[in-house]
Amino acid sequence: MISLSLVAFGLVVVVLALLGLRLHAFLAMMLAAFVVALVTPADSLIGYAEHQQSLGKMSAGEVAKFAASTPPDRVLKAFGETCASMGLLICMASIMGKCLLDSGAAMRIVQALLALFGKGKAHIAFVFTGFGLAIPVYFDAVFYLLMPIGKAMARVTGGNYLLYILTIVAGATMAHSLVPPTPGPLFAARELGVDVGTMMIGGLIVGLFTASFGLLYAVWANKRWKIEVPEDDAQSVQQTEHTSLPSLGFSLLPIVLPVALITYGSFQTSMPWYADSNVALSMGAIVSLWLLASQRRKDSPSVNDAVQAAIMSGATVLLITAAGGAFGSTLRQTGVATVIQSLGADAAQTWAIPICFCITALVRTAQGSATVAMITAAPLARAFLEAGEMSFHPVYLALAVGCGSKPIPWLNDSGFWIITRMTGMKETETLKIVTPMMSLMGLVGLPIVMIGAWLFPMR
Fold first, then answer.
1. 428, 416 in Cβ contact below 8 A?
2. What DSSP string describes 390-427?
3. Average pLDDT taken over every residue of the chain
4. Which of 173, 196, 171, 134 has the alpha carbon at shortest distance from 395?
């Protein structure tokens, strides 16, 4: 059971580094990776290598080379492999998200949905908009974009401010954890060997159920509690609009094009090169750059400035993700898959999904970040795959990790403070109203994923 002890030790190191030492997530992950690599005994490394050989992932020569490798070699190799597999995806997703915001395409999509549903059903439009925009755009950016519109809508309708807050959160927070190319679900998919198209489809289906629950909760909470728009916050929809917005078709193209290509590729036996997720997302980024260039005003920042800002943001996410890949690799090298295998195939398969959910939820609650929680838990989910053949597709483990990243947002979560500060709510109000909603949405997702794995194992 030394493997489980090392895994628990590694998780404790991450949490203490984040909370106790207040280290950046990148440094915390790298520190934990090196510490776990240093304390992992040679017998565990040999056992791990031999298990990989039995799976056909290592040759006899590679087993001997791995057993003789140093802790820095193992950590840096895993760090580099994660960068290679996810670097282009994260950077292109960052560029696409930034261009959608700066070109006014995101605002055009918002306006179209509001016009479609009307003022009376604006809360439904906010769920759809939040979910759709949070696929290529980070949660905080989506919230910054939509909240001024929610405030203006509350002033126009004379109420329902809490309803608009909660529906924006309900849509955006679930896409953030379930649908690539957002970094968390993208990492989980890659770590578990799930192609991006399958993860997108699975995330959209589970997200439909969880976001629908969030919508129902929002309607209920709006009747129970009253939140007023801050008096000094007189923003209007007009203030958030661009003077000239692109057409709806061109606004949707950067999102629809890569999704369509990746989805098409996932249904092909031999995937065409243009449906590769790296190529598809790059094509979406190119279209979004053209869109930004065509909409740029003389007084607005240049396209190069937008790309620079996007790359800086994406680089931070990539470093954290790569550090998480290194940390996850050192955890697997402790031989935890063999321990899971010893539980027996039936026990491992029965408990794999809830265990992955609970591990992610514990890490999320302890350190605050949903993305870091997914990056931490996904490698442990992979250990179930390495322990033996599963009766269901690994996408269900990835989705369980995504749902597990929702409980429990509180004072250590940056998103908690973004919601509190942007809406004018008190900390106690956010804890009482928003925290339960996000936690329950994740809990609703768990049985949905388990039922899906039972009814549609895809094996």
1. no
2. -SS-THHHHHHHHHHTSS---TT-HHHHHHHHHHT--H
3. 86
4. 196
**pTM of this prediction?**
0.81
What number of CA atoms fall less than 13 Å from residue 84's CA on the CB side? 7
DSSP state of 57: S
pLDDT at 346 over 80: no
Tell whether the model's pLDDT for residue 68 goes beyond 90.
no
DSSP states of 290-347: HHHHHH--TTSPPHHHHHHHHHHHHHHHHHHHHHHHHHHHHHHTTTHHHHHHHT-HHH
- pLDDT-derived band at 57, boundaries 50, 70, 90: confident
Contacts 24+ apart (CB under 8 A), 338-344: 338/3, 338/47, 338/48, 338/51, 338/387, 339/1, 339/3, 339/4, 340/383, 340/384, 340/387, 341/387, 341/388
Q: Give the integer Cα–Cα distance in Å for 364 and 423.
A: 23
DSSP, collapsed to helix, strand or coil, labels residue 25 as helix
Total length of the chain? 459
CB 36 within 8 A of CB 13: yes
Question: Shortest CA distance to 372 belongs to which of 420, 405, 415, 418?
Answer: 405
User: How far is 135 from 133, CA to CA, in rounded Å?
Assistant: 5
Summary count for the chain: helices (H), strands (E) = 22, 0
